[in-house]
Write a structure and sequence with these properties.
The structure is a homodimer of 266-residue chains.
Chain A: H1 2-5, E1 10-13, E2 20-22, E3 28-30, H2 34-44, E4 47-51, H3 59-68, E5 78-79, H4 81-92, E6 96-99, E7 118-121, H5 130-141, E8 148-151, E9 156-159, E10 162-165, H6 167-178, E11 183-185, H7 190-200, E12 207-211, H8 214-223, E13 227-231, E14 250-252, H9 255-264
Parallel strand pairs in A: 1-4, 1-12, 4-5, 6-7, 7-8, 8-11, 12-13, 13-14
Antiparallel strand pairs in A: 2-3, 9-10
Helix pairs in contact in A: 2-9, 5-6
Chain lengths: 266, 266
């Protein structure tokens, strides 16, 4: 990592599993050294943007939680799937049926939801009930050409009380039932990383992604021409290091170590 | 259909959507003419076996319900996934974690379920909760080599109160989350049709499958060398007639019509 770190001008940070481990109760626990690491990046003059697939809350609510955990973070610094999806829905005149977390619903407040012509699926957590999944399915299968928009395609994530199925698993269930392919907004979709890079004003060759997800963080960022580092925190598992398709540019034990190496090269 | 029906010596009948439309409350409504059609097949001397992916109840309970709806049916006449799965589990020394309907659990009574080394997923219906899906996922992801056994791979089915996601959708969710391929017991798996044919003592060339599922009934039976007819009842939808891969040997409006044509050729 030291070999190429001096070219880095901007840092994209995943949040869950890198800054903190989220809790099933909506809370969570900071990962040791991460709050200090964020402050050090900001003090160094490197550009910084948070790039998350978090869809369990509005950005406002999510940022407030992270501030409460001691992180220096603000809403404009966060690239998240729901606002990106809203832009797409407006552009295409789509009226969503929402299968999302209750706390995310306000992000879609401006959109007409009567007589839906698409389904938007996020990490609905406790809202992934048998009844809600059947309802979303019936809306989709009733369309002449079903439109399914997924806020991410993650397989699972780690909360303080254990691993949980992520939106990608439920997306696959609806894709299979309706014989349709979802349009994914969020990591690893290229336009999503590009909008995070645009927010920093840094080209991909000068940017680094730091995340715990081998496919969505590391693989997605590399597809955009960025360097990408996997932390050994969050959902990281040792077998990730034998992934058949994705090889990170480096491994670090945690965010603090990544920032140590980055700042030594400045 | 009349052209080849005279070669038929044995009939495999799907149950849900052919004999009756099941109800979300565990009941259901017979499809007009179906009970009489079953009696006519039996009176004709044709061999008959019911071949179902039903996994919401033990065969005993399911057969009792159908008898209550007026059908002439008995347990040995029914080929169903759970008994087939039990045989496989015993042969391979597998201890299942069950994600199935409460009423199916007795089918697995003889098996050791402590310290599970596989997950068995059926149409769990109301048991497809967020918590139960996470639990099955954690059991799977904790195995060195996850073993997932699915009692069918249906996409959805129709109950009296609407379409419902079937086991295949939830199977896909777990497959994706754990990067594993499920072993499917039940239609459209070839060994399953073969065991139904063996129960009748009729070779595939002299057998007909009558079902409402274009892929699992019609496509699966044809793969085994049988003729297969799709009824326009149950989950049938007009767009099934444009299916890209599967073309039934005939369409009929319902089971009664299929039996009319069959018996005219005897």
């Amino acid at each position: 990592m030291a070999a190429w770190a001096r070219a880095v001008r901007g840092v994209l940070l995943d949040i869950s599993g890198v800054l903190y481990d989220s809790g099933g109760d909506g809370g969570g626990a900071p990962i040791a050294g991460s709050a200090e690491a964020v402050r050090r990046i900001k003090a160094s003059g490197l550009k910084l943007q948070f790039c998350t697939n978090e869809t369990q809350a509005t950005r406002e609510k999510f940022v407030k939680k992270l501030q409460g955990l001691g992180f220096d973070i603000s809403v404009p610094e966060v690239t998240a799937p729901a606002p990106a999806a809203c832009r797409i829905l407006k552009e295409r005149g789509l009226r969503p049926h929402l299968l999302v977390h209750n706390d995310l619903v306000p992000e879609f407040a401006e959109l007409d939801k009567a007589n839906p012509n698409c389904v938007v699926i996020g990490d609905a957590a406790e809202n992934f009930t048998y009844a809600n999944l059947n309802e979303a399915f019936r809306v989709l299968i009733g369309m002449e050409k079903p439109v399914l928009i997924a806020l991410g395609r993650g397989r699972y994530y780690k909360e303080t009380d254990g691993l949980k199925l992520d939106v990608g698993a439920y997306m696959k269930a609806l894709e299979y039932a309706c014989d349709v392919e979802a349009e994914v907004v969020g990591k690893p979709a290229k336009p999503f990383f590009e909008s995070a890079l645009a927010a920093m004003g840094v080209p991909p060759q000068q940017a680094i992604m730091i995340g715990d997800d081998i496919v969505n963080d590391v693989g997605g960022a590399q597809q955009c021409g960025m360097r990408a580092v996997q932390v050994r925190t969050g959902k990281y598992r040792p077998c990730d290091e034998n992934h058949p398709h994705v090889k990170p540019d480096a491994y670090v034990n945690n965010l603090a170590e990544a920032v140590d190496i980055l700042l030594q090269q400045l």
